[in-house]
Structure to design on (333 residues):
């Protein structure tokens, strides 16, 4: 077993042991951490199965040529538009965007497009944006979107170019 | 949230009607990928539970309300980067802070880093993209958040 895995297993079991002991003896900080864990697990775990089913269907049904044409090296500006639109419909947060971006890249989407997708899914998911505007106002949300989106696209293009020069390859999962 | 399962359910039904084998293959891929990322996901959740205990909402509110706007923006970026919370908690919190008089630019720095910069999602991100890309992407995101905060400050006439 690799050293990293050993550390992980020890860490996770230590954490679980700590929670169990905390609940047995009514140790407040431990109990609170336990509640946090359950609350956030529930919030995120209810999204993951649905997201991964869509990723699985995407893998078997969508042809590589289609993705290469619309999101690949030859896609031009349209690729970024698609990435932003797709990001708008993404649910959850970064933890959903990463596996989706990975699936897109393995089907031929270019690096700058998937980084645009990740950035955009952080800042312009539609339900979240509406929610934000209702608490902080339209003006606030409009400024945030109009300033951050172009920056996301530009920095993604730069990052993509830099990584291509280094012959970057994503780990196979 | 609900529409995700409506879409996923419909897609699964249509897929099943058209080709059963491909649908089973899709489900297999879904399960395999989900399981392969679960350890990193669990690590992330453990970190979230600990960090949110150390830095609860109340602490964040206190620090974001400092008098100096620039210090406020920097503190907001710091907290936004190290914390992870869903929008339905973060935005009501921002709404309360706004009423308390916290400047828009501070809230902007907090909201943008909260969404874009993920110190806590690091275990997951590095599984997919590697350490180097993860670090670069987060640094870029922090930079974008600061630019957005400054522009927000300018448009709301909080600076200059």
């Amino acid at each position: 077993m690799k050293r990293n895995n050993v550390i992980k297993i020890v860490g996770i079991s230590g954490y679980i042991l700590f929670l169990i002991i905390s609940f047995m003896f009514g140790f407040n900080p431990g109990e609170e951490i336990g509640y946090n864990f359950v609350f956030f697990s529930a919030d995120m775990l209810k999204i993951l199965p649905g997201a991964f089913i869509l990723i699985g269907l995407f893998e078997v049904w969508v042809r590589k040529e289609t993705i290469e044409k619309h999101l690949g090296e030859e896609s031009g500006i349209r690729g970024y538009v698609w990435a932003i639109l797709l990001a708008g419909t993404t649910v959850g947060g970064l933890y959903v965007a990463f596996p989706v971006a990975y699936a897109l890249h393995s089907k031929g989407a270019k690096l700058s497009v998937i980084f645009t997708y990740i950035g955009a899914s952080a800042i312009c998911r539609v339900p979240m944006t509406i929610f934000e505007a209702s608490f902080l106002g339209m003006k606030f949300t409009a400024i945030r979107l109009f300033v951050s989106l172009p920056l996301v696209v530009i920095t993604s293009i730069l990052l993509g170019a830099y990584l291509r020069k280094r012959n970057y390859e994503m780990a196979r999962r | 949230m609900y529409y995700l399962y409506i879409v996923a359910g419909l897609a699964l039904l249509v897929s099943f009607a058209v080709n059963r084998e491909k649908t089973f293959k899709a489900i297999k891929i879904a399960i395999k990928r989900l399981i392969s990322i679960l350890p990193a996901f669990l690590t992330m959740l453990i970190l979230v539970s600990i960090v949110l205990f150390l830095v609860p909402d109340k602490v964040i509110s206190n620090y974001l309300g400092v008098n100096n706007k620039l210090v406020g923006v920097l503190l907001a970026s710091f907290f936004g980067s190290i914390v992870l919370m869903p929008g339905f908690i973060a935005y009501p919190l921002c709404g309360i802070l706004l009423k308390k008089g916290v400047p828009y630019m501070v809230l902007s720095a907090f909201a943008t880093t909260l969404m874009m910069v993920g110190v806590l999602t690091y275990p997951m991100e590095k599984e997919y993209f590697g350490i180097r890309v993860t670090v670069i992407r987060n640094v870029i995101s922090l930079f974008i958040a600061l630019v957005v905060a400054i522009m927000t400050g300018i448009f709301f006439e909080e600076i200059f």
User: Anything to note?
Assistant: Residues 138-165 of chain A form the longest helix (28 residues).
